[in-house]
């Protein structure tokens, strides 16, 4: 009986060792996976789409003229019509 | 029996009286038909104020008195009995009187009479001439109230009756311009100008219509057409002076500065020195400024200040004080007397307190111009009445006519004074605007000078390449001499910040 007990214990220990070895083997897999992930992380980034085409923005003729017009509009009153004078001429 | 005799006598007397009245009416009517309007007017007048005339005959006499006086060109006096008929007569008679009143108010350009007439008229029952006048006047009145759509409707009714009516076409074009619809306005004014185009260039209407068309082109910014049309106005036309200012605006806006300067030069000769025209001096300054003639621009501004600053102070003083309308009429009278003496070649001393060039300019503008023209018509009628009614039998009619005219004259003078008073207030505002413009222009002149001085300075600095860095030298030359230009090749480093030195050359225009 005592022997049976010892045998049982030995079998249990062996089984334990076996399963623990199996689990440590199982833990090795993630190590490999993590190495793969590192490979996957080195993503190639393409900058082509986000390339900014820089060019010097210089005022063209129109905008220079527009600025001038605006500038003079502020300070000089230009005659737009002669309606008041035409009303004076009514029935002349 | 006795009573019967009295009754018989009364019937006989009254019937003979009626017969006598009818005979007088018939005689007056005959004179009217034979175009002896002076006699007709006298006869109708007597009937009107006779106690023996029946109410019916009195009404007829009043109506024909109005017509006779109108035929004698005593319009103001004619309006008086006709107004009474519109109040007392039957619908048909009063309608006929209104027809006559429309024509009279149009001739006299009397806004009070016009308002009275337009309010009470039934346009559908008017004859063609009265309808034309009525719809034109309604169009003008509605335009002033900014009711443009209805104004156009009335004016188109006139054009259905007479397609080339001057007043209706002019008003229609003006309504379109007020709506800023130049595409519609231009054909209207072209039609109007085309009507007079074949006339002599000195024709008054031709010049006036050319001016209207040029203004329409101006509003549409059609500069070549504007310039060409303004140039159709001859030198002796009353609108020539105004045309020169407006032509200068058109030339200026089409960037023809030299031609603009040549045109406006005319207005600043001694010939026009007594004219109120602040706008032309401001415009002259603007053009000088655009051609960078700041010295000339300043001279123009100095002339503006010399002429208009004192005028502005005088106007401000007059507008502050409360004076009766009669005072302002004395100013008009003084200006008229002086101008008359000037025209006669014997200039007298000007007695007015308001500067002559201001009163003169106001007299040439509506509504004062209209009121003065009305006053002239009233004075002409007085002279006509003195000339027509010389017999003693016509003394009562003469007195009646002169009484109406005197009363109208007094009211018109008072109104003219009040109009001048109002115009002076708006003139003060206008001058205040121009003074503001002058201040802005002064700033611009200083700015132009500053820029010119700056350019001269830069020119001196850049002169002959002295004080400049020679671009042919290698960069290392500067680096070795203590200048740091770009000490690193290609890379960007944070520690470069603050160490850049620009060695370029100033490329601003020297002139």
Using DSSP, what is the number of strands of chain B?
0
Average predicted local confidence, pLDDT of chain A = 62
- Structural class of chain A, please? mainly alpha
User: Helical segment tally of chain A?
Assistant: 3
Mean pLDDT of chain B, to the nearest integer, reads: 84
Low-confidence stretches of chain A: 23-35, 59-74
Oligomer status: heterodimer
Q: What is the end-to-end distance of chain A?
A: 144 Å
The ordered string of helix (H) and strand (E) elements of chain B is: HHHHHHHHHHHHHHHHHHHHH
Rg of chain B, alpha carbons: 36 Å
- The portion of residues forming beta strands of chain B comes to under 5%
- Morphology call of chain B: elongated
Give start-end ranges of low-pLDDT stretches of chain B.
Answer: 500-511
Dominant shape of chain A? rod-shaped
Fraction of residues in H or I helices of chain B:
over 70%
Helix content of chain A: 55-70%
Structure description:
The complex is a heterodimer of chains A (about 90) and B (about 500). With about 90 residues, chain A is mainly alpha-helical. Chain A is rod-shaped and about 145 Å long. The termini of chain A are far apart. Chain B is mainly α. In chain B, about 75% of the residues lie in helices and about 0% in strands. In chain B, helix 1 runs parallel beside helix 3. The radius of gyration of chain B is 36 Å and the shape is elongated. The C terminus of chain B is likely disordered. At the A-B interface, helix 3 of A face helix 9, helix 11, helix 13 and helix 20 of B.
Quick structural overview:
With 92 residues, chain A is mainly α. Chain A is built from three helices and no strands.
Task: Please write out the topology.
The complex is a heterodimer of chains A (92) and B (511).
Chain A: H1 2-41, H2 61-75, H3 83-88
Chain B: H1 2-33, H2 37-49, H3 55-71, H4 75-88, H5 91-108, H6 111-120, H7 128-144, H8 148-161, H9 166-178, H10 182-196, H11 204-219, H12 223-230, H13 240-253, H14 257-265, H15 278-290, H16 294-320, H17 325-343, H18 356-363, H19 368-388, H20 395-462, H21 475-480
Helix pairs in contact in B: 1-2, 1-3, 2-3, 3-4, 4-5, 5-6, 5-7, 7-8, 7-9, 8-9, 9-10, 10-11, 11-12, 12-13, 13-14, 13-15, 14-15, 15-16, 15-20, 16-20, 17-18, 17-20, 19-20
